[in-house]
Design a protein that fits this description.
With about 280 residues, the protein is an all-alpha fold. About 70% of the residues lie in helices and about 0% in strands. It is built from 13 helices and 2 strands, in the order ααααββααααααααα. It has helices at about 1-20, 20-30, 40-50, 55-80, 95-100, 100-120, 125-140, 145-150, 160-180, 190-210, 220-225, 230-250, 260-270, and strands at about 85-90, 90. Strands 1-2 form a two-stranded antiparallel ribbon. The longest helix is centred in the N-terminal third of the chain and has 23 residues, at about 55-80. The relative contact order is 0.12.
């Protein structure tokens, strides 16, 4: 699956590489490669495989589009007007290498490219529902834009904030995997919400504990944002993370590969607890 994701991302960027202005193309490529764990496209693919009968080119296209949206959110999150982060994924952030104007354009381009990619490579019969799903995940009501925008509000409701900032793409991953396999999406919402909540708590733990993977720690405290560790303490946050992972596994709807998918959810989540806290709340 990992190779298929990378190949789908290369296809998505092919038009930019061939015809776009070189500097923004370099900034876009820098934002996407090398990537992180590709958790969201892997999750979409795992759901489609567990259900069976998925249209593989559509699964790959949708997974790549999810990752493009995720990369866009990271580029924008790191900009000086938000976190002004110096590093991301263990290397200098996009604006530190390519400058703020190109970083802004690269983030915008990645959002547009996510939808263009679906239009080019997804099965025509599945494309409208997947585009709508992707739009909700990116949007200003409950999606990525809302997640970023909550940080500008005088009061931040942590559940709505986390649901938009992180869970939105996890819900899109589980529901999109189901749609690509020809199944109704709604039954897969709960799994995505709980897994997204677990990943956000993990992100808060890494931010508070300072042993995250290649990005600055302490950003929530600096910017006055709610953090699970601040609310519940380190032990409470770890307990909540593990609780949400167990709930996500239990929320997997019955299907041919349900048992394997539940095991995969637990396996993927093992890396979420910072090493210094892995004995906490065990």
């Amino acid at each position: 699956m990992s190779q298929r994701i990378e190949e789908a991302l290369e296809r998505a960027l092919s038009e930019v590489d061939a015809h776009g202005p070189p500097q923004v193309g370099h900034a876009i490529r820098y934002a996407v490669f090398p990537g992180g764990a590709r958790v969201r496209p892997r999750l979409a693919g795992a759901v489609a495989e567990a259900i069976g009968g998925a249209h593989a080119p559509t699964v790959d296209a949708f997974g790549a589009s999810l990752e493009l949206l995720h990369c866009a959110s990271l580029v924008h999150d790191d900009l000086p007007c938000f976190d002004d982060a110096a590093t991301r994924r263990g290397k200098p952030s996009v604006h530190r290498i390519h400058g703020e104007p190109l970083a802004l354009l690269a983030g915008d381009a990645l959002i547009v490219l996510a939808f263009e990619n679906l239009a080019r490579f997804a099965a025509p019969s599945l494309c409208p529902s997947l585009v709508a799903l992707l739009g909700r995940a990116a949007g200003a009501a409950r999606g990525l834009v809302a997640g970023q925008a909550w940080e500008s509000e005088p009061s931040i409701p942590i559940e709505a904030y986390h649901r938009a900032k992180t869970s939105s793409l996890f819900v899109a991953a589980t529901q999109g995997g189901a749609l690509a396999a020809g199944q109704p999406a709604e039954a897969w919402r709960s799994m995505g919400e709980r897994l997204g909540d677990a990943y956000q708590v993990a992100d808060d733990l890494f931010d508070a504990c300072g042993d995250g993977d290649g990005k600055p720690a302490g950003q929530d405290a600096v910017h006055g944002r709610p953090n699970a560790v601040e609310l519940w303490g380190a032990e409470g946050a770890v307990a909540r993370l593990r609780e949400r992972v167990a709930e996500a596994a239990a929320a997997v709807p019955e299907c041919a590969g349900a048992d394997g998918l539940r095991a995969l959810v637990v396996h993927m989540a093992e890396r979420l607890v910072p090493a210094s806290l892995r004995q906490t709340a065990a």
